[in-house]
Amino acid sequence: MSNVELKDFTSIREVNLLRIKEAKEQGGKVVGVYCTYCPQELILAAGAIPVGLCGTKEEPIAAAEEVLPRNLCPLIKSSYGFAATDTCPFFHFSDVIIGETTCDGKKKMFEIMQEIKPVHVMQLPHLKDSEAGLELWIKELHRLKKFLEEKLEVDIKDEAIWKAIDTVNAETRAAKDICDLNQMDPPPLSGLELLTVTWSRSFTADKNEVTNMLETFKKRLLEKKVNRPRPRARVLLTGCPVGLGTEKVIRITEELGAAVVAMENCSGYKTLELLTSQEFDDPIVALAHKYIEIPCSCMSPNAYRLELIGRMIDDFKADAVIDLTWQACHTYNIEAYAVEKMVKGKGIPYLHLESDYSNSDLESLKIRIEALLEMVTG
Ligand code: SF4
Ligand code: SF4
Q1: Which amino acid residue places its CA nearest to atom 4 of ligand 2?
Q2: CATH number of the domain that 78 lies in?
Q3: Residue nearest to atom 4 of ligand 1 (CA)
Q4: Closest atom, ligand 1, to C-alpha of 296
Q5: β-sheet bridge partners, residue 260
Q6: What is the total count of domains within the chain?
Q7: Would 141 be classed as within a structural domain?
Q8: What confidence tens digit (pLDDT) does each residue in 63-114 have?
């Protein structure tokens, strides 16, 4: 792979859809996942293909609202809507679905999704620094392993899990390396380009291939010495997950002359510092230690998220922080209080936005983001 362009990431979805279809025709298995807490290593070790299913489009929401309450996070409604209308090919090809008890909306939605496909819900402890929490999580990972073995009719061996751990660690390192390039001033990647690369990763059928793509893309960026004009402001985005289709805040910020240099959310940096340690004897225990560290707002307390955002502000030389909450996401909404305090304590402006997947608030978002940028540039 000598040359990798941004368009190669843009087309990952389509290319891999064909591959997944072919793999299915030859008896391959596909496992759909919704959340970064799902240990993809177990799916890879089972010889199946993990695919990310989080809904990032508005279209299926109306269908979802026939079953789910309107006053629910758009990510949950979009995810369920795609399943209910059978309009997401990745959901269509999934043999089983893995969910987790993260936020209330998601866990209750999974109960209803069971009517469409088998959904295995992992019970996620919401307290990471406790022995009981870790014990429960280790048991849940064992329960997931058993579920995959039964449903996919395979025997998941420890060696296969360790191999998958190596694969995922390498991919995580490569993705982090790309994100870290934006610590440069000016940043070589716009926020939209960064999102394209990081978000598209979850649609790949071959993790080793995407690692090679990421490494080659990084090399190429460094060789090309991309020299963009210095942005009006360097913005850090945090909050709820964003994907292509729900990138309006990034788009508006960049249309206003600033650059979203980094994203502390699930499609961005939230998991990129977390590697599975090979120091443990048992790979399930090793995975449990890694995944329980993810700083999602469903964790309480969630100190690592604040620490991570603080460090990212310094490393990426952020001039301002935008914290995006999808409507009816209580955990990120409430946690915005602590994030604001921390960000302002570092002496930079902070903007909390609450929005949904529609375009009805584009003008007001623009006005509020412009006001934030004026605080930076005067
Ligand atoms: S924000 Fe939390 S619940 Fe949502 S995908 Fe990320 S880890 Fe999962
Ligand atoms: S954005 Fe918030 S409400 Fe929506 S699925 Fe994620 S944690 Fe739950």
Answers
A1: 73
A2: 3.40.50.11890
A3: 35
A4: 2
A5: 235
A6: 1
A7: yes
A8: 999 999 999 999 999 999 999 999 999 999 999 999 999 999 999 999 999 9
